[in-house]
């Protein structure tokens, strides 16, 4: 790991069909680093997996592929659009979204139709944080 970076484990957010309720069940996670010395690294990618899946992070939007992370981002939460996945639960019962270290991502087509993505990473994926100093006073020197 390069100087000024740390690696942490980030929970994988999921949006899965629940046969007992015949509805969708959310498992969403938030990272709030706003009062810390860390920011989300651009070594990460926002990964969204699933059929008819729409997930949002910050001001970025991506559907079914990797999206870059804006520099200095200190807050993120994952939201799934509930209009997208309910009708195809027999083909793709779960959708997943996670901010994760891009070099650790390996993709398999079976991730789309099975819980394999979540189980491969044991529900968590590595994520990189940058040591981030934000100076609000331009006359102050470090």
From TrEMBL:
This is Uncharacterized protein. It comes from the Eukaryota.
């Amino acid at each position: 790991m390069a100087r000024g970076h740390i690696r942490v484990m980030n929970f994988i957010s999921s949006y899965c069909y629940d046969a007992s309720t015949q509805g969708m069940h959310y498992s969403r996670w938030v990272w709030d680093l706003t009062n810390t010395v860390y920011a989300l690294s651009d070594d990460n990618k926002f990964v969204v997996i699933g059929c008819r899946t729409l997930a949002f992070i910050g001001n970025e939007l991506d559907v079914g592929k990797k999206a870059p992370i804006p520099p200095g981002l200190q807050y993120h939460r994952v939201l799934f659009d509930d209009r997208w996945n309910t009708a195809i639960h027999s083909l793709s019962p779960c959708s997943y979204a996670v901010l994760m270290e891009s070099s650790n991502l390996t993709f398999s087509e079976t991730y789309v139709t099975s819980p394999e993505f979540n189980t491969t990473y044991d529900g968590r994926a590595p994520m990189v944080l940058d040591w981030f100093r934000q100076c609000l006073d331009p006359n102050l020197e470090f």
